[in-house]
Amino acid sequence: MTIMEARGLRKTYESEGAPVRALRGLDMVMDDGEFIAIMGPSGCGKSTLLNLVAGLDTPTEGEVVVAGESLAEKNEDDLARMRRRHIGIVFQFFNLLEGMSVLENVTLPAMIAGTKRRQAESRARDLLDLLGLGDKARSAPGVLSGGQRQRLAIARALANAPTLLLADEPTGALDSEGGLEILELFRRLHAGGQAILLVTHDEHVAAPASRVVRMRDGRVEDDGRGAAAEPRPPVAEPMNAGGR
C-alpha cells in the first residue's frame, strides 16, 4: 500500500538575486513499512522534500499525498491535524522542551492530539522503556547525553503512533557512538513495521535503509528500486539500553 506520494513537486524560493529552484519536478512513491534514505549533495533539495511531506512548507507546484490524504490547499489547522494523525518528525538538533521532564516531553504531543493524560503517560512510559530511557522519566533533558537526547526526540515523534516517521540528518549532532546507537534504533523500529523516511548525506547513515533514493539538482536521480536496494545488514550490535 502506498503511504506517501510526491507528484511533480516544484519549490522555488525567491531571493534578492535569481530565484532558488530547490525542487524541479520531483516524483516519488513510498510504500507502507519501507525505510527509505534520501541521499544527495548539499543543496539538492533533500530537506525541502522532507518539509513538504511533513506539511511544514507548501510546494510551488505539485502535490503531496500522505496516507491517502492530499496536503494541497489545506490550511494550517488542517495540516496540524494531519501531522498529529500521520507524521512523526525527528530533527537534527533534538528540539526538546528543556523546561519539561523527559516524560512530559513524550506525553505532551499525545495530549495535544486529544489523548487523556493517563493514557498518554502510559504510552510515553512504554516508549521510554523501549528506547532505554525508562529510568530517566523524571529527569530534565539537559542531563542526558547526545544519544539519549536523540532517543528522547524519537520517543516524542512516536507518541501518536505515526504512519510515517521523518528524520532530517538524525545523527548529525552526535558523536560516532551516539550515531551508531540511533541507527540501530531505526533498524529495530523498521523491523517492527515502522515506515521511515530519512534524509542524510552520509552513506553510513543510509546503510540500514531498505531503499536509497538519490537526488541531484532537485530531482530523483535514482529511485533505488534496482538490485542495490536490497536490505543491508545492521550497522552495529544491538543497543545496550543502559548505554550512551
List keywords for this structure.
6-stranded mixed beta sheet; 7 helices; 4-stranded antiparallel beta sheet; 244 residues; Rossmann fold; alpha/beta
Structure description:
- This protein has about 240 residues and is of the alpha/beta class.
- It has a domain at about 1-90 and about 165-230: P-loop containing nucleotide triphosphate hydrolases (Rossmann fold, 3-Layer(aba) Sandwich).
- Helix content is about 30%, strand content about 25%.
- The protein is built from 7 helices and 10 strands.
- The chain has helices spanning about 45-55, 75-85, 100-110, 115-130, 145-155, 175-190, 205, and strands at about 1-15, 20-30, 35-40, 60-65, 70, 85-90, 165-170, 195-200, 210-215, 220.
- The strands form 2 sheets. The protein has a 6-stranded mixed beta sheet, sandwiched between helices. The protein has a 4-stranded antiparallel beta sheet with strand order 2-1-4-5, covered by helices on one side.
- A hairpin with a 6-residue loop joins strand 1 (about 1-15) and strand 2.
- Helix 5 (about 145-155) runs parallel beside helix 6.
Topology overview:
Blueprint: E1 2-13, E2 20-31, E3 35-39, H1 46-53, E4 61-66, E5 69-70, H2 76-86, E6 87-90, H3 102-112, H4 117-130, H5 146-157, E7 164-168, H6 176-191, E8 195-199, H7 203-206, E9 211-216, E10 219-222
Helix pairs in contact: 3-4, 3-5, 5-6
